[in-house]
Amino acid sequence: MMLDVTRGLFGRRLMLVDYEAAAQSYLEKLRPENHAESVSQGKQRAITLMSFSVLRASRSDVQVFNELLVQYPTPRRNRLGQVVPDNMVVVHSDRISATWSYDLPLQPVAPFWMIDYTSKSNRRKDYADNKRQFENELKVPYYLRFGTDTKKLTLFRHDGQKYMKVSASRQNRYCVQELEIELGLQDEWVRFWHCGELLMLPHELLSRLNELERKVTRLRAQIGEAKN
To answer: Would the pLDDT of 139 be above 90?
Structure first.
């Protein structure tokens, strides 16, 4: 039994070394345009990250990663699959340990949701190839693609064989049922709702807090006047 455990740990360590080397090789080959994003792409990414940061107050198991290389085994010998989504969502209650890459055989869960932000003015990635890998090789349950200049939003759900487009609700929102999340366009940007409540951005939360403070001040003044 102890020998089996030792072999298992040794094999895992060798796999880790191989995946780290593959990640380093991939990163070294990236072109300058792969690192740059348009202002609109950056704004939508910021909105997404801030929204999911608010979500973690009630769903700490929903974790979001930014521009993290995903590596996975393929049927081709000595060839790893590699892809970098703009954002990746995983659902896991414990902390995910990943530095340069998310290596599927070494991680406790597979990606649950991939998100890409496209722009005609900035072709920083092959998003068609991204979708192919998410759909055919990784079979990620959800994939969101948003054209930051065209304002076209498409949410795909994997049916076990291929991606199917998710239809919009009467409120023109798209649902990720497993997370009780909806998403849709508001002021031309993708916004997120959880259990029917909009996941507000920091400036919106501050505005609401300031309004509540003003209401409390008015109520205190009214109470003071009533006592006099």
So the answer is: yes
